[in-house]
Amino acid sequence: STMMHLIKYEWKKTLFLKLFLLAVVLIGEAIFLYCAFTRDFDSLAMNVSILILSLGLMLSPIISILQNLSLLQRELNCKEAYMLYLTPHNSFTILGAKWILSLMETVIWTALAVAFATIDTLLLIHVTFGFTPDVMSRLNELVQVALTPKTLQIVLQLCFLFFAGLLQFESIAVIAIVLQATFLHWKRGSGFVILVLYLLLMYLSTTILMHLPFSSYMLFPFAGSYISMRALGQVLVSLLLSAAYIVISSLLLEKKRNI
Fold first, then answer.
1. For residue 178, what are the contacts with CB-CB under 8 A and spacing of at least 6?
2. How many Å is the Cα radius of gyration of the chain?
3. Residue 68 in contact with residue 11, Cβ under 8 Å?
C-alpha cells in the first residue's frame, strides 16, 4: 500500500542514525559481556558499559524522534520544499507515515531495552552465583516479588505513559514545524510565536491528562488487573491527542498545498 511504501521510505532515510545508535549499544553490550565473563565487576570498563547501555537504550527513541522532526523541518524549509507540495500523496498519508514510524521505533527500542536488561541480569546472576538450587530458589522469590500486581502496575504504567508522552511530544512539535514552515514562513517573530504555541499545547495536554475523571484506585480488569483506570485513561487520551494533533497538522499542510 501507499502508506507502507512511505514508511519504508522514511525508515531508509533515517537508517544510518538508527544503525549508529544500535552499534553504540552493541559496543556497550560487548564490553559488558567481556567484563562479566572475566568477573571484572568493579572495573571502569564495567561501569562505562552500564552507562552506555543505560543511556543508549533510554535516549535512542528520543533521538530517533528528534531526527524525524529535524528531517521534517528540513523538508519543509529547504529550497526543494516545493517538491513536497507536488507529490501525489496527501498530507495525511505523509505525516501519518512519519507518526507510525516513530511509534514503531519506540516499540522496537523499548523491546530491545527489556531484552538486554533481562539477558544481562540473568547473565550476572549466573556468572556470580551460578544456577544452584539455592540461587534458583532466591531468584524465584525475586521474580515473584517483581511479578506482584503492584510492581507490574507501576512498571507498566510508567512504560505506557513514557511511550504515549513521546508520541504526544512529537505530534505537538509537528504542528509547530508545519505552522512555521507554511503560514509563518519568513514572518518576523515566527519562532517566538511557535514556541509559545508549543508551550500552550503542552500545557493544555498536561492539564487534560491530569484532570481525567477516573479513579486512581480502581483497576481495569485486563492483564491481571495491573493497569489502573486513571493510567489507562491517560495513555488512551494521550494517544488520541497525538492523533488529533497529527490530523490538524495534516489539514494545515493540505490547505497550504491547495493554495
1. 76, 249, 252, 253
2. 22
3. no
Q: What is the pLDDT of residues 55-75, one digit of tens each?
A: 988 888 888 888 888 888 877
pTM of the entire predicted model = 0.74
80 has pLDDT over 50: yes
C-alpha 109/C-alpha 148 separation (Å) is 25
C-alpha distances (whole Å) from 12 to each of 6, 16, 56, 177 are 10, 8, 21, 22
Q: Where are the alpha helices (DSSP H) in the chain?
A: 2-13, 15-37, 44-77, 82-86, 91-129, 133-146, 149-181, 190-210, 229-258
DSSP letter for each residue of 180-204: HHTTTTT-TTHHHHHHHHHHHHHHH
Q: What is the pLDDT of residues 102-148, one digit of tens each?
A: 888 888 988 898 888 888 888 877 777 666 677 667 767 666 666 66
